[in-house]
Structure formats: C-alpha cells, structure tokens
Specification:
This protein is α+β, with helices and mostly antiparallel strands and about 100 residues long. The chain is about 55% helix and about 20% strand. Strands 1-2-3 form a three-stranded mixed sheet. The termini are far apart. About 15% of the residues are buried.
Length: about 100
Amino acid sequence: MFKPVGSIIGNLHLRSKSQGAIFALQVKRITQEQITKTFQDLPREAIHQIKVKSFRNSQLTLSAPTLISLELKMRSEGLKDQLNKAFGKDIIKRIVFRVS
C-alpha cells in the first residue's frame, strides 16, 4: 500500500538543485548506516556522537568529539571504501573530520 520514501525520491524528476539536496540526504543516511556497521567495536555512545555535517564536491564532512575523531581519521580509508561500495561507484573522494 505505502511505498518507502527512498523509492519515490529516486523516481522524481526534479530540478538539479533539488536532486543535489536529495542526493546529499541519501549520502547522509547511507553514511550513518555504514558508520554503525564499520565501527561496531566502538561503544554505542561514541557512534551516536558521530554526525554527518555536509557532502559537497565529493567531500564528506563528519563531526565528532576529539578522541572519536582521531579514531575515525585513522580508519577513514576503510570507511571511504565501504561507503563507495555501498553506492556502487566512487562517490566519496575525501573525508574531513571536524571536532564537535
């Protein structure tokens, strides 16, 4: 009866600005899912503190407290590979970390 929003969004023919915003939301959702899967060894409280701030020009910006940010930075190549695998192509070229 009801269709998931993601399936409807994929079929909409929108202006390029709208498509960019919708794509950024999809990147945010998939990034949150991959962070949860990739960093299962971190405490749940730490994972919940990682926030997707922006996605622009193939650069993903994440925000996290200092210690968590350092851990993410050390493991960022694995995260980038997982994200690109989830998309099926190289969407993420660079991951930048900001301390929250």
